[in-house]
Specification:
By secondary structure, the protein is mostly beta strands. The protein is built from 8 helices and 53 strands. The strands form 5 sheets. The chain has a 31-stranded antiparallel sheet that branches. β23 and β24 form a beta hairpin. The longest helix has 27 residues.
Length: 944
């Protein structure tokens, strides 16, 4: 009896529970004449709740009082009836439901069910549902969507539900438009760069999903390469996903990597949070935890990241990084790092404790912020021992071999009404090899653009000669120092820093004589102001020069005159048509001679006071008079000694050829034969010693559109002579030309570089076979490869490591027989530099009266090979011919595994190291799914 009673109670409870579930009951379709089964609905469903028809009262038999009472009661009844209708309407939908179907639609008035077949769509407010089959129960706002199967059993037209920015794909979906709740089977949705899949999901009115047996992956393939299997999870679209026990599955193989719970953030806005550190070991400093800290999302305009590192042997470090950006105003970043490094063991000879720091600041002002004022900064300062103590620099050859660092902060403003520009710069130059620092704080510049003081405001008639006279002004105020980095904070502003101000006023004019001769006279006035000068004397007891710094205000000025005259001559040559044909139209020769005269007085005269003397008595009692300038070593120097009256000559030649061309729209094109061939020389008639200058020559050839060959050479004018007493060679006062020889070649320097790739080689063979080569513009020429570190690395060498690119077209190319073309993109950049100069330190040849020449050469190589899609190999190396050593040699191998990326880089010379990395491509999982392995720092292990 008790057993039966318990069964009845459980059935009663189950009935009530089932009644509370919002389930859809769709009548089954039958094959007889009626589309709906007779017992599916009650026959009196439509009539049971139909209100009885009211009988209207006869108002003609009423008097006025009865009629007024009747109208008043009727108005109250109508108002109550309207309120009841509104309450009933609130239980339904609030907006029209739009629906359509490509195949057919059926509607059953008795049950209120609408059936849509074939590419169906239902829209309600911001909700959009698409599926091959959709069943709607309009009375309860319920909708049921499912896909169909073709003859092969393949599903198609599965439901796709969109609500606002959220989108869901599933096999079957039941949804309530009114409550915005739903039940979804095999849901598929994308959140940020991840994809969520689950067997069964529930959606509440907030848009949150509750998943059962779900999968999370960043792979966009239908069958993902990997995923994290989730037993249950809660998804807040656009925010995060929180899940329970989960494990990793790779290539459908479950791995023994499980976690009890976790979450993935999806928000695109800034959010604060902890940064997990990396661990490892180092020979000199022990085990470590690095790059762990906290990220502060201050606002959408700036952020802050604080990181720390700690080692078991006592070393530690702190760093702070911040990025800031204000639209249409400015943007930049700041980085500061401090390291306290301890190597070795206490009370041992190898125990070393040192501190180092690094500061980087980059600031850019938007051009729209202020057209008249700008502020920019590029600061890259680090102590000499920072990079050797930084673990990441070991695997960055550019940072490890960086010999110089430059920093600058610039500010400028202009006053367009008067043409004046005011700018200030702070410069810092570091030599990382000897810790030398050169700092300028500040470097203030004032300039006034060229103006014509005698030009009339309202000109009438021809321009007069004095209206062509122009002048400008440039002023500079500087304060600089050159010292060691450990002494800069202890330096004296008055004794150690060099400061001064310089003014320059050039006055010039431009005139034309006889319509062909251009005359340009000019006068330049320079003025220097110093706050100190150096008094020199001789100490007979110590036998050395003594320098005393005198403080005060000292003014040094100079002036010079110059006059240049130039013209341009043109010559044309039309070749013989019978010999050269009509391909060559003409050859043009442009000859530009220039002659100039300059004059400056002798500023070493005593009336200027720029030079002084002191008496020197050496240890043997010999007395000599030493001339010096108290302004030697000052910021802007001192005017030179001796009068200058120099005549300079310069010639320039240009030869071009005009030929017919079908590629040009005009039918002709110009070819540069010699872009420039020139020479210059001068004669100073104000001196008797070496009045002739050396002969300077230059040659520029445009070998192609992308390469121009520049050659410069200097030929010495005066010949070597032999000292009759010592027998040593010296430069005499006789010229090489007076001895029947051309000027003595001083040397030259040239750098050549070229990049070869598979396309250039293929086009070359096509050209040999007589085929027309299609000239495509290479977009790689417009790209720059920035390593992010200021180095002396050649840009072309760096670009060569990225030269082999994946083809933009994913369609495989085939030959004329239909076979796939063998295509291995590769790129090789070769750079060769040679310097030839006279080696005065070598053995002199008394027969030819010349010193031998010394050659300095270097060779650089960099390349890139893509053996297949996803595989990429790059390398760079070089050879120093002077030291007979291989320069920095690096190689790297990377493999794109679709969802993962594998890379390995090695440094082979001058030291050895390796770095292996395997990590997920998605930013969400790149710090969670990764494996890094690299050689230990500071032990230089020979691992190969």
């Amino acid at each position: 009896m008790r057993k039966n009673t318990l069964i009845i109670v459980l059935l009663f409870v189950l009935t009530f529970v089932m009644a509370e579930l919002p389930r859809l009951h769709f009548p089954q379709e039958v094959r007889d004449e009626d589309s709906v089964r007779v017992d599916s609905f009650k026959t009196d469903t439509l009539t049971a709740d139909r209100p009885a028809k009211k009988t209207e009262k006869d108002t003609l038999s009423m008097d006025s009082l009865q009629k007024a009472i009747w109208k008043h009661n009727k108005a109250i009844d109508d108002s109550l009836h309207a309120d009841s209708l509104n309450r009933e309407r609130k239980k339904g939908i609030d907006a029209p439901v739009e629906y359509q179907a490509d195949d057919s639609m059926t509607y059953e008035a008795g049950s209120g069910i609408a059936r849509l077949f074939g590419n169906s769509q239902v829209k309600y407010q911001d909700m959009d549902l698409q599926s091959d089959q959709i069943f709607m129960q309009l009375d309860s706002s319920l909708v049921h969507a499912t896909g169909s199967r073709d003859s092969t059993g393949t599903k198609f037209g599965t439901p796709v539900f969109k609500m606002g920015s959220d989108s869901y794909e599933s096999d079957t979906m039941a949804f309530n438009f009114k409550t915005k709740k739903g039940l979804i089977q095999n849901v598929y949705t994308q959140q940020d760069d991840g994809f969520m899949v689950s067997e069964l999901s529930k959606r509440n009115e907030k848009g949150e999903l509750f998943l059962q047996h779900g999968r999370y992956t960043t792979c966009d393939e239908p069958h993902p390469d990997f995923y994290i299997a989730l037993s249950r999870a809660k998804v807040r679209p656009g925010k995060d996903v929180v899940f329970g026990p989960a494990y990793l599955v790779v290539a459908d193989v479950p791995l023994p990597f499980a976690i009890p719970y976790g979450f993935f953030p999806f928000t695109k806005s800034y959010s604060s949070g902890f940064i997990m550190p990396t661990y490892g070991d180092e020979t000199s400093r022990g085990f470590y935890l690095r790059d762990g800290g906290y990220y502060f999302a201050m606002s959408d305009k700036w952020d802050l990241k604080l990181l720390g590192e700690i080692y078991t042997k006592g070393s530690w470090g702190l760093s702070a990084a911040s990025n800031y950006h204000k639209r249409y105003r400015y943007s930049g970043s700041f980085y500061a790092s401090y390291q306290n490094s301890v190597t070795g063991d206490k009370n041992m000879p190898d125990y070393v404790k040192s501190t180092s720091f690094k500061i980087q600041w980059s600031h850019r002002q938007d051009s729209k912020a202020n057209p008249y004022s700008s502020l920019s900064a590029s600061v890259n300062f680090a102590t000499t021992n920072y990079e050797p103590n930084n673990l990441n620099s070991m695997y960055n050859p550019q940072a490890m071999t960086q010999s110089t660092r430059t920093s600058s902060v610039s500010w400028s403003t202009s006053f367009s009404s008067i043409g004046m520009t005011l700018s200030s710069t702070v410069n810092l130059n570091q030599n990382m090899r000897d810790s030398t620092i050169g700092m300028t704080l500040p470097d203030l510049n004032i300039s006034i653009a060229r103006f014509y003081p005698f030009k009339r405001r309202h000109a009438a008639g021809k321009e007069r000669w004095y209206e062509k006279i122009s002048m400008s002004y440039t002023g500079q105020l500087s304060n600089s120092i050159n010292t060691k980095e450990d002494k800069i904070l202890h330096s004296s502003l008055t004794k150690d820093w060099r400061n001064g101000m310089k003014h320059s006023i050039p006055i010039s004019g431009s005139f034309t004589l006889f319509g062909y001769l251009n005359l340009n006279p000019s006068i330049t006035i320079n003025d220097r102001m110093y706050t100190q000068k150096y008094k020199r004397s001789w100490d007979e007891d110590r036998q050395r020069e003594v320098v005393d710094t005198l403080q005060g205000f000292y003014n040094v000025y100079d002036w010079s005159l110059a006059l240049t005259a130039s013209t341009t001559l043109y010559g044309f040559y039309i070749p013989n048509r019978k010999i050269f044909g009509d391909k060559i139209q003409a050859v043009r020769h442009v000859f530009t001679p220039t002659i100039g005269f300059s004059y400056a007085p002798d500023f070493s005269s005593s009336r200027y006071g720029y030079y002084d003397t002191y008496t020197k008595t050496d240890a043997d009692g010999n007395v000599s008079l030493v001339e010096y300038s108290p302004y030697t070593g000052t910021l802007y120097g001192v005017p030179g000694k001796g009068k200058t009256g120099r005549i300079s000559m310069d010639i320039k030649n240009n030869i071009e050829m005009k030929v017919r061309s079908d590629d040009d729209s005009t039918g002709f094109k110009k070819i540069s034969i010699i872009d420039e061939l020139g020479a210059s020389m001068s004669y100073n008639f104000a001196t008797d010693y070496h009045p002739w200058s050396d002969l300077s020559t230059r040659l520029r050839l445009k070998l192609s559109k992308s390469y121009t060959l520049n050659l410069n050479a200097v030929f010495a004018t005066y010949a070597y002579e032999i000292d009759s007493v010592t027998g040593r060679p010296y430069i005499g006062n006789r010229t090489e030309y007076s001895k029947g020889r051309f000027g003595r070649f001083q040397g030259m320097s040239q750098n050549l570089s070229y990049t070869l790739d598979n396309k250039k080689i293929a086009n070359f063979f096509k050209w040999l076979r007589g085929e027309k080569v299609k000239k495509d513009k290479d977009k790689r020429d417009e790209e720059k490869y920035d390593t992010g570190v200021e180095t002396n690395v050649d840009d072309k060498m760096e670009a060569g490591k990225h030269g082999a690119r994946r083809s933009e077209s994913s369609k495989a190319e085939t030959d004329e027989d239909g076979y796939m073309l063998f295509n291995v993109p590769w790129s090789l950049s070769i750079g060769y530099g040679i310097t030839m100069r006279e080696n005065t330190g070598g053995r002199f040849n008394y027969d030819t009266m010349r010193y031998p020449y010394k050659f300095t050469q270097n060779l650089n190589l960099s390349g890139n090979v893509r053996i297949s899609d996803g595989w990429n190999i790059s390398f760079s190396s070089g050879y120093d011919f002077e030291n007979h050593k291989i320069s920095m040699t690096t190689a790297s191998l990377s493999r794109d595994l679709h969802c993962f990326n594998m890379s390995c880089s090695v440094v082979l010379a001058p030291y050895t190291s390796y770095n292996f990395s395997f990590r997920c491509n998605a930013a969400t999982l790149t710090d969670a799914l990764k494996y890094d392995k690299r050689s230990s720092y500071s032990n230089a292990v020979q691992w190969y």
